[in-house]
Every structure is written in structure tokens, then in C-alpha cells.
Amino acid sequence: MSPSEQAHAVDLISRLKEAQPDLRPSERRVADAVLADIEFAVRASSADLARRAKVSEPTVTRFSRAMGCDGVRDFKLKLAQSLIVGSMYLREPPRLPEAPNADLPFADMVFHHARAALDHAETQLDSDRIREAIDVIADARRVIVFGVGGGSTSLAQDTQYRLFRYGVDVTAYSDVYLMRMIACTLGADDVVIALSATGRIPEILGAVRLAQDYHACVVAITKPDSELAKAADIAVTIDIPEISNILKPSASRYAFMVVVDLIATGCAYKLGGDAQETLRRIKYNLLNFREGEVLEPLGD
User: Fold this and answer.
1) Which three-class secondary structure state does DSSP give residue 266?
2) Are 156 and 163 in contact (CB under 8 A)?
3) Among 12, 133, 184, 250, which residue has the fewest nearby CB atoms (within 10 Å)?
4) In sequence order, what are the beta bridge partners of 217?
5) pLDDT digits (tens, 9 = 90+) for 79-111
6) For the chain, what percent of residues have pLDDT higher than 70?
7) Residue 248 has pLDDT above 60, yes or no
8) At what angle do helices 72-82 and 12-19 cross, to 10 degrees?
């Protein structure tokens, strides 16, 4: 299946749930049987599914066509494609954990996994790679940050916010076309920071390779042994195990954020007085722009 076909693949499970209330009673029984055990429906013959739903085989065929499929075989194929995310997204949602905090019973879980992610980060980080990343970023003419998707986009923006206040010429990009265009403008004095939790995002890999074609240095913050880690000039790698509770946001972002903070802090110390003067200018003008205290977070 081509990338464009994958992008337009029919989410048959969603379509089925939306259509369920408007189906004929017999077809609704087929829908109920499918949703009750999707893996069975993918494997079952038309006759097996008819028996499970207590309808005739022609009803199963009519139901398949009502779902926009050419027939039972096409229905099962599209249904199998909808299972690509795995059964954990089709089970009943996780129950709230039992915890001493009655008002926020999930609070202990969220804090626990955030702490665990930071602990994993501390034990995995290679200080030599961190120092190499700091050196090239602090000395760069321009720093470009690439990150796509929900997590890496916000992390790329945060990387820009962490670095510009020290006087680093830094800009974050998440648009895949702009990333490629910007990569073509780089040179040997420039650095790309590429962010990806998986290290296998084609758009990131393509932009990184273009930047390297024009002799820019690539610092990757990503998963160990991934394609991005192997492609980078300097790879700061980290692997945070995820839990099966799909309702809780990924804790890995805490680990990636602390890596960015380590690099930013290192750059600040390397730039020394220049970084401090830039911070002074920012704080001075902010305090004259609105009321505040000197020790409040910069920019709040």
C-alpha cells in the first residue's frame, strides 16, 4: 500500500459505530457481533459471522455493502486494516486506579511515571554526546530545530524558547515542506537539532539528509539504534518504556524535555557573559513592559 493510500485508508470501525443506530435491525445485529469481537469478525467466514449474529448469510453481505464495501471479503480486509493500532484501543477504557487521593485518583500514577521517565533519562544519557551537542550548538551560526507530530512539534518549539534567550539564533520548523526548504539553505556553520521519539519519521529523515548534503551538522535527540540516531552526526539517545494505559499522556516527553534543558543550560554556561547579557536585556524590557518580580520565570 502506498503512503497516499495509507493516509486515506478507511477507518471502518469508526464508520460502523456511526452507522449502527441507522441500520436495519438484522444488520444492526451483525454490527453488534462485529464490534463485540472484531478479531473474530476478521477471521470468521460469512457463515460463521451469520451464526454469531443470528442472521442469514445474505444479511451479512447486505451489511457489508451498507458499510461501503464491495462485499464480505472487502469488508473483512478493511476491518483488518482498522485493527492496525492493536486491540488495546478497542477494549473497555482503563478503570481509575485505587489511590489515597480521592479527588484526583490518577495523580499518583501521573507523578510516578513522570519521575520514572526522568530516572530512566538520568541513567541512559551519555555525557560525552551531551557535551558534543552543546559545543556545536553554542558555536553555530544558525540552529534549526525539526520536529513533526504532536509531541515533537511542541518539543521543537520549546527547544527554540529555551535557546533563543541565550542569544542563540534558533528557529523551529514542523511543516514538512518548510523543513526541506530550510535544509537547502544551510551550510557548514549551521546545526540541525532533529527530535523524534521513534527515530523513523520519513519527513525528519529526509530533511536531515538534505541538511547534511549541504554540510550542516545534525544533532538528534531520539531513540537508540533508530534510523535517525544512525544518520545523525551527534546522537543523544533515550528510550522510555511506555505503559499500556492509553488514557494517560506519554511520560517520555518529560525525559526529552530534560535532555533539551541539559543542552540549553550547557549552552548558557558555554556562552557565559553573552548569554547573561541577552537574559538581562530580555528581563529588563519585560519588567518595563508589565509589573513583575526579578526572580519570576523569564517570559511569564
Assistant:
1) helix
2) no
3) 184
4) 191
5) 887 776 655 555 666 666 665 656 677 777 788
6) 85
7) yes
8) 110
Minimal CA–CA distance to 223: which of 206, 245, 205? 205
- pLDDT band with cut points at 50, 70 and 90 for residue 13: confident
- Percent of the chain scored above 90 by pLDDT? 55
Q: Find the radius of gyration of the CA atoms of the chain.
A: 26
Res 256: pLDDT: 93
Comma-separated ranges of CATH 1.10.10.10 domains in the chain: 3-89
In CATH terms, 3-89 corresponds, of 3.90.1170.30, 1.10.10.10, 2.60.120.10, 1.10.220.30, to: 1.10.10.10
Question: Confidence band (pLDDT; 50, 70, 90) for 11?
Answer: confident
C-alpha cell at 225: 539504534
Q: Give the position of cell 539528509.
A: 209
Q: How many Cβ atoms sit within 10 Å of the Cβ of residue 300?
A: 6
Instruction: Assess contact for 68 and 25: CB atoms under 8 A.
Output: no
Q: Confirm if 133 and 234 have CB atoms less than 8 A apart.
A: yes
Distance CA 258, CA 279 (A): 20
Fold of 110-289: Rossmann fold (3.40.50)
